[in-house]
Automatic annotation (TrEMBL):
Residues 36-47 form the 7,8-dihydro-6-hydroxymethylpterin-pyrophosphokinase domain. Keywords: ATP-binding, Folate biosynthesis, Kinase, Nucleotide-binding, Transferase. Catalyzes the transfer of pyrophosphate from adenosine triphosphate (ATP) to 6-hydroxymethyl-7,8-dihydropterin, an enzymatic step in folate biosynthesis pathway. This is 2-amino-4-hydroxy-6-hydroxymethyldihydropteridine pyrophosphokinase. Its EC number is 2.7.6.3. Belongs to the HPPK family. It holds the Pfam family HPPK. InterPro entries: Hppk (IPR000550), Hppk_sf (IPR035907). Pathway: Cofactor biosynthesis; tetrahydrofolate biosynthesis; 2-amino-4-hydroxy-6-hydroxymethyl-7,8-dihydropteridine diphosphate from 7,8-dihydroneopterin triphosphate: step 4/4. It comes from Cereibacter changlensis.
Amino acid sequence: MNAAGLIIFDVQVDAAEILSVFHGIEAAHGRRRLSRWGARTLDIDLLALGDSILPDRETQAHWRCLPPERQAQEAPDRLILPHPRMQDRAFVLVPLQEVAPDWRHPILGLTVSEMLAALPAADRDAVRPLPG
């Protein structure tokens, strides 16, 4: 199951502090970071923070353009924003479109809706809402 949330802050916030809070929530729910992309009880990702690019454009581009076989083997040593693979994942963009369809990727220049529309229809159609 995947979901997306939009948090609006009235003050300047540090992305690393937000991620630390998310990791604490994951740990409280039994998350153990034993292997890259391994099974997990809970996974909370920080996809973006407004139009921030962290740590810089070059590092973000490196991880965004990394071939899939290397993505499965390598992990960045710091937070990369926007999330380097969000534009490739329907399971991220479908729920994100529900809360922030007009958010614009600060490097790609595309909205969530535009990134989602660029994915293959089969990928989009594979993401189904929970029965309600």
